[in-house]
Each structure stands twice: as C-alpha cells, then as structure tokens.
C-alpha cells in the first residue's frame, strides 16, 4: 500500500520512502503488475478492499462449501468468474486446504464455547429425542427438543441398547445434565434406553404414530378417489359425445344418469377422505394439557379415552366404506395411546412441583392454571403449527383465553415487568410439552440432502455439521440451539472464524 501511495517513482526513492530494500520494492511492483489485469483490481490492493475480499472468500466457503455441500471445483470456477484468480488461491486444491482450516477452527471454537456453557451452569433437565438415519453410514442422533441442540450425531455400526447407552450417557456426563423424558419410536432399544439406561419416562412419538396410520390408508383412499374421478371424466366425455351427435332423449338420458352417478361417487370419496383427515388431525388436537374447545384442564386418562374414541371412529369409517382393515396397524397404534397420554399427567406434575415452591394463594394458583399457562401454551402451539385448519382452531382457543386473561383481576394487579416474568416462566413450561421427534426427522432430511450434494458424506465433516447446526442455525428471534440450551449468548460463529 505504501508503494502504491507513493506513485510512480524510482526504485531507490520508493525504497527510501518505504524503508525496504530496492529488491523488495521491485518484487512488490512486479506482483502488483501481475494482479492488475482488470479495472477493479486496484480495489483489492487497498486495506478495505483486501478485508472485503477475505470476507468474500471465507463466507463463500463457509456458506456454500460447508453448509450447502458445494464442491471445491464449483467454487473455484465461481471465483474465476469474479476475476479473483490473481488475488487469492482459487484452485480446487487450495480451496480444499482453506476449507480444512475452517473446519478445524470451527470445531475448536465450538468446543471452547460448549465448555463455557457448561461452566455457566444454567442447563436444566432436558427433553430428548432419539432416532437413527441410514445414509452412506448409519448415524445415531440425540437432540434436545426444546432448544434443538444436537447432543449426539455419531456414526455407529449398530443401534443396539449398549451402543445407544454408551454414546448418550457419555455425552450427558460431559454436560452434567439429566433427561426428564425421552421421545422416540417404539424400538425396543430406545424404550430400554429411557426406562433402564436413563431412568426416565419413554414417550411414544406422535409423528411416527400418525405416519403409521397415514401410510396404511392414505394410498388406498387416494386410489379410490382417483378411480372415481377417472370414471367421472369418461362419463362426461361419453355424455358430451352423445349430445354432440344430436341423439334423442332415450340415448342421452342413460349417459346423463351415469355422469350424475359418477359425480356422486367422486363426492362420496372426497367426503370419506375429508373425514379420514379430520380423524388424523384430531389425534394431534387432542394431545394437549387442555381440551382445545374450552381450554379446560385434561388428565392422561381423559386424553387416552378421547384418542381411543378417534381410533374407533377411524376404524368404523374404514369398515363402513369397504377399505382394508389393517388390524395390525390399528392394534399397534392403540398400544401406544396410553404411553402417549402419560405425557399430560407428567407435565402437570412438573408444573405442580414448581408451583409448590412458590406457595401461591389458591386464587393466584387458579389464575396460573386456567389462564396464564394456557395463554402461553396456545401461543407456543400457534407459532409451531403449520396446518391451516389446526392453526385456526388453536387461534380461536388462544383468543378466548387471552380475553379472559386480560380481564382477570390478577393480571391487572401485576406490574408490567412482573407480568413479563410470569409469562416467561409459563412460556418455558409450554415449551417443555414435547410430543413428537419431527425435529430429528428434519435433521435427518438435511443430512440426506447433504449426502446428495456431496455424492456421499465425508466423515471428517460430521462434527462440523453438528457444530454449524448448534451454533449457526438461527431461529426467527435470532437465537441458536446453543444459546437456548445453555441459556446464554455466544458470539457469531462466522465472525469469530473470520477474525481468526
């Protein structure tokens, strides 16, 4: 920069002004000439330009190379298209070396931050979800559901109880934390992991239960509806042909009757499909600490009875319309309803223990149970629910509770900052009601996409992907799984890596 600032002068004068030897000045001038091929080349010689160029290179490797699985050859071509080959090492081998440096820095940084989080001492008993995914290699995944923090994401040769227990217990010991309950499918090793290995409640996964019903009946229902729609299309085409031929009423009437009957058949199977979907939706809408229609408190027995009623109604629908019964599927689902419903009483017991320490008067406790907790719970469910129909029903329940909450004397007596503390406490309990491991399934989907991008999964990068998920995957509020899990903020991972 000093050489460029002093303009075109003799080597001796430039050496005198910059304090370096003439040979060094000459070498720097030659390098500048080699880089100065394009109009924008001078920008990269300034301190600001050089810093921005470094940011561009690191960001490209960080985002596209590490997080999206774009290959070094493609990134090399990208940099060449930007005329950067004279400014930075753009060959695939040079970029791979840079990526390896980034990987080491990311893993080392995350290890230090995790230790800081452990030392911070704010980790609470966790709600875990466990599952395995089969890609190029089998991977075992253990996630904390309320925060989304990945505790284990390891390649394993099998998925036995001993393998799961060894990985999970080692990780929990490192973090110094216990498991409140574990959500999983009904694999025997995972049930044993919860009940024997971790001495906690094993909750059946609502996601897998719903999927079990969906894959058993959705296809056959769609097939019946499609057949009816094809028959309707043919009947209408025949009717149009007959009418176009100017046939008499004796020929037109049968074709018209057939078209009307086909339309009725389509309507029939559309109604059956809609009823079937409502039963599936109700399984989700029933599994809450409060009954959705009036936000009254539920017990596990009440939830189980209502879930059993839905399964019976679904079975009746199937038999009534001549669909394959699939008795084994229904029996498998029924066996899980008691375990699924047990979460309701367990959640209320956790809330009750918390309230006992507060020694609240009965009026205030009623306000918490009937208004504060359901208000924050329905808000949490509304933000997480994607199905428009379910979202609308939850919104109605939330509005009714919110109106009553705002009118209640206890709400009006609290100062804004105190009320905010109460709402924060209730929101934390609302997030602790976890009934599905769909977040783990989402993670498995991401790994599947990465395997496709990479044409295989580089083993050395597994830990890097786990770190990127924990420390660089941001929610809409800007928090990361790590900040939610350790209950403290962390610096921006990219900026930290860039600074190093």
Model description:
- It is built from 20 helices and seven strands.
- Among the domains are: 2-114, no CATH class; 120-205 and 439-499, Ribonuclease H-like superfamily/Ribonuclease H (Nucleotidyltransferase, domain 5, 2-Layer Sandwich), CATH 3.30.420.10; 358-436.
- The protein is globular, with a radius of gyration of 31 Å.
- 69% of the residues lie in helices and 7% in strands.
- The mean pLDDT is 88.
- It is of the alpha/beta class and 500 residues long.
- It has a five-stranded mixed β-sheet, sandwiched between helices. The protein has a two-stranded antiparallel sheet with strand order 6-7.
- Helix 2 (11-18) crosses helix 3, helix 4 crosses helix 6 and helix 9 (206-244) packs across helix 12.
Q: Which overall shape is indicated by the principal axes computed on the Cα atoms?
A: globular
What is the CATH first-level class name of the domain at 120-205 and 439-499? Answer: Alpha Beta
Main structural class: alpha/beta
Distance between the termini: 23 Å
Q: Uncertain regions: pLDDT < 50 for 5+ in a row?
A: none
What is the annotated CATH architecture of the domain at 120-205 and 439-499? 2-Layer Sandwich
Order of helices and strands: HHHHHHEEEHEHEHHEEHHHHHHHHHH
Q: Let me know the largest β-sheet.
A: 5 strands, mixed
The amount of helix comes to: 55-70%
Task: Give average pLDDT, whole number.
Answer: 88
Specify Rg, calculated over alpha carbons. Answer: 31 Å
Helical element count?
A: 20
Q: In CATH, what is the homologous superfamily of the domain at 120-205 and 439-499? A: Ribonuclease H-like superfamily/Ribonuclease H
Oligomer: single chain
Strand order of the largest sheet: 3-2-1-4-5
